[in-house]
Design a protein that fits this description.
There is one protein chain. This protein has 291 residues and is an alpha/beta fold. It has one domain: Thiamin diphosphate (ThDP)-binding fold, Pyr/PP domains (Rossmann fold), CATH 3.40.50.970. Helix content is 41%, strand content 17%. The protein is built from twelve helices and ten strands. Strand 5 and strand 6 form a beta hairpin. Helix 4 packs across helix 5. The longest helix has 18 residues.
């Protein structure tokens, strides 16, 4: 097997040449999420004939079309439902979902909640840019309080979803959040999420210069990307400061977005439990035992 060393080699191996150039705006973080995912798959040595990508509607949901592999571009918010069907039909497939904050936590929120609750063996990669970028810049369920959007011209007053907090509370086996500005931790996390049996959520904080950054006066592309470094904090650093820091230190970090691995556990998933149930019922049928 030829060792991939550069992004150009990676793209040539995994992407469809006829799809270039991409639809993504300058400074958009979605393409970086795709690259991190492909690096993780490359390092794992996965057979792409055994990987299926699914997505709904939105900027990030266009990603499966760029990958030279089987994929589904489904209706808005329904990617997880379609992906569950794929996994049920062929449990041996590795199923990866690309979704956005609106697609996943808005119209697709109920599918997300129950897939996580059931611990279905899927890897959900949610690109969170705080906005519906494709359909006009409306405020999404993850938008920070005070942020400006076409549906919140005077600032968002709704408390945002903490999508990682929700997934963790529902018992998902793997939950992590990272900004896209640095590669090593995100790629490592994607590898962990892909290998994890059960439900995995990887949330990526990705800049949207056109629909979000411009309206919120976050500066040019370089300044916008720096905003994510300045406004995020590792979970362990946040907890350490809140437990042992002085009041000034606590005040400085209280509104920062926590990043890192929120949950990494081993718990049987839906299809494992379903298989056990079927085996038990078959055994009862064979022995003539009543329910």
């Amino acid at each position: 097997m030829v060792e991939i060393k550069t992004a150009e080699e990676l793209n040539k191996k995994y992407l469809r040449e006829g799809m270039w150039p991409t639809i993504f705006c300058n400074g958009c973080g979605i393409g970086v999420v795709l690259e991190y995912t492909l690096w993780a798959i490359e390092e794992l040595g996965w057979d792409m004939d055994k990987v299926v990508f699914a997505s709904g509607i939105g900027c990030s949901s266009r990603l499966p079309g760029y990958i030279n592999a089987d994929g589904l571009h489904t209706t808005h918010g329904r990617a997880i439902a379609f992906a569950t069907g794929i996994k049920a039909a062929n449990p041996d497939l590795n199923v990866v979902i690309f979704t956005g904050d609106g697609d996943c936590s808005g119209i697709g929120g109920n599918h997300f909640i129950h897939a996580a609750r059931r611990n279905i063996d899927l890897t959900v990669i949610m690109v969170n840019n705080f906005v519906y970028g494709m359909t006009g810049g409306q405020s999404s369920p993850t938008a920070p309080i005070g942020s400006v959007a076409t549906t919140a011209p005077y600032g968002n007053i709704e408390h945002p979803f903490d999508i990682c907090g929700i997934a963790k509370a529902l018992g998902a086996n793997y939950v992590a959040r990272w900004p896209v500005s640095h590669p090593y931790q995100p790629i490592k996390s994607v590898k962990e999420g892909l290998q994890k049996k059960g439900f995995s959520l990887l949330e990526f904080l990705a800049p949207c210069p056109t629909a979000y950054g411009r309206r919120n006066k976050l500066g040019d592309i370089k300044k916008l990307w720096k905003w994510y470094d300045d406004n995020t904090i590792l979970i362990e650093d946040y907890e350490k400061t809140m437990n042992y820091g002085n009041e000034k230190e606590k005040e400085e970090i209280k509104n920062k977005i926590q990043i890192g691995v929120f949950q990494d556990i081993e718990k049987s998933g839906f299809f494992e439990e379903y298989e056990k149930l079927m085996m038990m019922l078959q055994e009862k049928k064979t022995t003539g035992e009543k329910k």
